[in-house]
Amino acid sequence: ARGSAPGDRGFGGGRRGGVDRWDPDGRQGSERSKVVGVKLDEEGHLWWDEASGVCTYFQDRRRKWPFYTDRRGMQKLAALVKANAALRARNNELLVAMGNPADVAREGERLYVEKPTLRGEDNVTWSFSEYGHPGLQLHYLKLKSWQRFTETYALMERADQRGAFDQACAAAAGPGARALRIVSIGGGPGYELFAAEQFFREYKGVERLELYNTDIQPTWRGYSEALGFRFKEFDIFEGNLLETLGVDAVDYVIISYVMIYVGSIPGNPAHERVCDMLQTLLQTGGARAVIVSERGEQQASCKMMESRGVHVERLMQQDLGLDERQVLLLPPGSAPLRLKPSPAPLTFPNVPFEEHKIKRGGAKGAGGSQTRWYT
């Protein structure tokens, strides 16, 4: 069996490979991993075995690469399934309204898997119209929910292991303090924000949260509002974030799988403006930190932000090579964060996966992560 259960030294999940070809029957590739226990979701991505106390979950379409967590992680993923039901119901209404829901869903799966726009020169995963396609959104809800929730939750825990949120949480608990204010840029339906809400409310004990989700694609509004979040249409290339939200400052900005498309090409005027905007936001007290998740282990955006004096706190383990998939951008002049003594273990270990580093003998010379297991 690939991987190992919680508490073992090994890891669970992940693979190397290229972009998938569309397989409408879902039979391409190896057999699905066999799991034990009770299925907790409709498609079989989440399983709980009471006897062993091990929760097995999958983030890939064919349910081939297992990840593991414990009862606490299972409860959070079960809450995700429950919350996602409202989004699936919203999506079903859109599919039915188009008159041929099965065909729309099938075309959406093709777009989701083949990513035809990504194969072109537009430097985006999906085009604006593809991103608003109800069939593609169905498969986004089915699959991206697992990845975006667990990766964001793990990022929050890694940052908390360094005390990144202690000051803001203490301030939010003070008398007369405003709610802790968090915004997600390019958040789609809002899974990153849902992870942040779970983390700050349940793990950090913050009672008052003010949560904003933004995206350039307005059709995500209904999904985001179904999760209980305020939604603002926002183009990071054009808009002013604080003006769009109608606030003077936020505490945290979450940017997940977006920087590679908007702030990673040195010398590109649009990308340079995005980095300038984030630097100004941090420099002027408009945000305490920008929380970034990305796909590749080496991110040009990190050097671009450091060149502006921004402190980049790399949260992933660096002993097997540079890994910038999860970072905090902190105001210029910030001191490096120190790991707390005896930090709590991660709820979702090996997220994002790291066992490929061991197999290749470390990250040196690898040219960044080539993994696309989550398609």
Q: Treating each run of at least 4 consecutive H or I residues as one helix, how many helices? A: 12
> So what's the overall shape?
globular
Radius of gyration: 20 Å
Oligomeric category:
single chain
Mean pLDDT: 88
Q: Percent of residues in helical segments? A: 25-40%
- Number of DSSP strand runs: 11
Order of helices and strands: EEEEHHHHHEHEHEHEHHEHEEH
Give the helix/strand class.
Answer: alpha/beta
Spatial gap, N to C terminus: 21 Å
Q: Runs with pLDDT <50, length 5+?
A: 1-30, 363-375
Q: Biggest sheet: strands, sense, closure?
A: 7 strands, mixed
**Beta-strand fraction estimate:** 5-15%
Q: Strand sequence of the main sheet, in spatial order?
A: 7-6-5-8-9-11-10
Q: What do these coordinates show?
A:
The strands form 2 sheets. The protein has a 7-stranded mixed β-sheet with strand order 7-6-5-8-9-11-10, with helices on both faces. It has a 4-stranded antiparallel β-sheet with strand order 1-2-3-4, with helices on one face. With 375 residues, it is α/β, with parallel strands linked by helices. The radius of gyration is 20 Å and the shape is globular. Helices cover 36% and strands 14% of the residues. The chain has helices spanning 71-97, 101-114, 128-131, 134-160, 166-172, 191-203, 221-226, 241-245, 259-262, 269-283, 300-306, 355-359; strands spanning 38-39, 46-49, 54-58, 66-69, 180-185, 209-215, 230-233, 252-256, 289-293, 311-314, 326-330.
